[in-house]
Design brief:
Length: 482
Amino acid sequence: MEILNFIDGRHEPATQGAWLDNIEPATGKPYGRLPRSSAEDVQRAMDAAQRAFPAWAATSVEERTACLSRLADRIAAHFDELVAAESKDNGKPERLAAAVDIPRAEKNLRFYASAAQQYLTEASMSGGAGQLHYVHRKPLGVVGVISPWNLPLYLFTWKVAPALAMGNCVIGKPSEITPATAYLMSQWITEAGFPPGVFNILHGLGAEVGEALVTHPQIKAISFTGGTATGRHIARAVAGTSKKTTFELGGKNPAIIFDDCDFELTLKTVVRSGFANQGQICLCSSRYLIHESIYPAFRDALVDIVSRMRVGDPQSPDTKMGAVVSADHLEKILSFVGKAKELGGRVLCGGEATRPESERCASGYYMQPTIIEGLSPTCEVNQQEIFGPVVTLQSFATEEEAIALANGTEYGLACTIWTENLRRAHRVAAQVDSGIAWINCWLERDLRMPFGGVKSSGAGREGGTESLRFFTEPQNVCVQIN
Ligand code: NDP
């Protein structure tokens, strides 16, 4: 697959003619190439987007959202192609891409097509009803969207849809590790009705084209999802400018498992919350905090299930655990397991790189699902994001201790709470530092809800009206009416 940039309604290679290999994680082999774009390509996209902006901003919300709906139709029509591409590019099982990634990409576009049409701005009366105030929400101009590799099309569309719906022009940069589905989508942007220059997609390295995008003086806003270190770097790069930013960053999410939980439901769901997408979802649970009275039974039941999970070729319909995204990422995950062992942790299952039986996968990047116990809550394995199929177990005696452990990292993205005592569930949720708290469930999302993290997990919120507001500049207009 030869991937091209999409600028001003046309596909083209990087201006400087440089390319990067695109590797299939399941096989460890390159299967295509993508443009290694530079600041010159950012400038070309910016020139096109600025030409397009006045007319696009002046279109009606109905016209803009009709483009989003038609793009969603194209995604639905190319469902199988996108599923296969997402799996090949990322290493995730095709069944997961078919169940989660591609349906959600389509849903993101349809959701914002509808939400933008129903969005009302604020109005108020003041001065004894002498003045009418209203908020005129104007598009920002040209905005930058930067997304990671773990849920490629899902997270990319989550950002571009509200930006376009509110009348902005977009320059998007998907992860260089997983560019395929954004490229496929770029083939349908024009037929969906977006005028040239409104929606541009550049491929390449974060440190090159990504950096050029975020630091471009005419970029009005950056919507970023990725690692905390990258987010901090971008925050420093734009400090002192008037760019708006939103950061969705890493996590070290606790699953708090009380002794009065529904044991079977909890077990089944935390297996999913720890290991779905090979543990590479920002919302995955990575620290299981288990009440001491059920710790041995819960641990043994968990290990029994997880030690029987098999990694497989992502293309096989039976595979539930595929490849991790890259050789570097596999090394990183293994280095955390190595540190855990050095620190006296006991690896209860997994702990090694592995290979599915298929010949095709002989050089791919696969990690056994891994459970570790016996580590201090403050050690780096329990503090830093691993972002792989590795979970740690800790026990607690009291509710207060569970909350302290849950809050005892720099992160605050998501937590799950497992108890049949609803008073306790609400009480604990209120005290956990997290952007989202799931009680007796995981990954249930309502796209109208605010989404984001606290502490080092992010700044700002996405979702529902949060994103629509983010991608606009509010102007207070005041009218003297008597
Ligand atoms: P990275 O931070 O490495 O990369 C994210 C994106 O930023 C990529 O497109 C990357 O480009 C780009 N980038 C890298 N450096 C720069 C730079 N200097 N300027 C501009 N852009 C840059 O994250 P990963 O792709 O490794 O994704 C995994 C991380 O994302 C995890 O920490 C995970 O928790 C987090 N995440 C958070 C979510 C949330 O909602 N809070 C959701 C999903 C993931 P390239 O890769 O091409 O170099």
